[in-house]
Design brief:
Order of helices and strands: EEEEEHHEHHHHH
Helix content: 40-55%
Number of helices: 7
Structural class: alpha+beta
Bound molecules: zinc ion
Number of strands: 6
């Protein structure tokens, strides 16, 4: 790892910490003394994705991330939240201990997560991934979600903050004057 400031190829580790599935190291350049951080991620045994048509390709985290990012584009989600979905799915895949995973399984994992996160992102991803056979199937899915959000409407933030509903007069004396 070359120093990002001067390009020198040697540094010392001044702090290291376990983070999720990797190690975060704080380093100091031996030439210019600049400090920088590196993350080491365990590279597990190869994982292959099997396609519907029988083709096999190596699991590509960037491809997974790109698909999730595209679905979440311009949605009110932080990039941290979006990227974490790919990280967690990757982690779950490796934890299965399998060396081959059907592409549909990964798609289902993404959809399950997006469904909880953001319905628009979910529909976008599902329409690409599941290749809805016709517009009726897609509509059914949208209707399902619409019904679902009515049931869970108490989870959503009310338009009027509850404390204003409970106490409409914050300073009643002023009103009596
Ligand atoms: Zn340096």
């Amino acid at each position: 790892m070359n120093c990002p400031y001067c390009g020198h190829n040697d540094s010392k580790v001044i702090d290291s910490r376990d983070v999720n599935d990797g190690i975060r190291r704080r380093r100091q350049c031996l030439q210019c003394n600049a400090r920088f951080t590196t993350y080491e991620r365990l590279q597990p045994a190869s994982l292959f994705v099997t396609k519907k048509d029988g083709r096999r390709e190596e699991f590509d985290r960037d491809k997974l991330l790109a698909g999730i990012r595209k679905a979440c584009e311009k949605r009110p989600l932080t990039s941290e939240t979006v990227d974490r979905q790919a990280d967690e799915i990757e982690g779950e895949l490796y934890q299965t201990g399998k060396t081959e995973i059907p592409s549909g399984t990964i798609g289902d994992m993404v959809m399950a997560r997006l469904k909880k996160l953001d319905h628009i992102a979910y529909i976008r991803f599902a329409s690409v991934y599941r290749e809805f056979e016709d517009i009726t199937t897609l509509k059914e899915e949208v209707d399902n979600l619409a019904g679902h959000s009515i049931i869970n409407s108490s989870d959503q933030l009310p338009l009027i903050p509850p404390d204003e509903l409970a106490a409409p007069e914050k300073n009643p004396r002023r009103l009596r004057r």
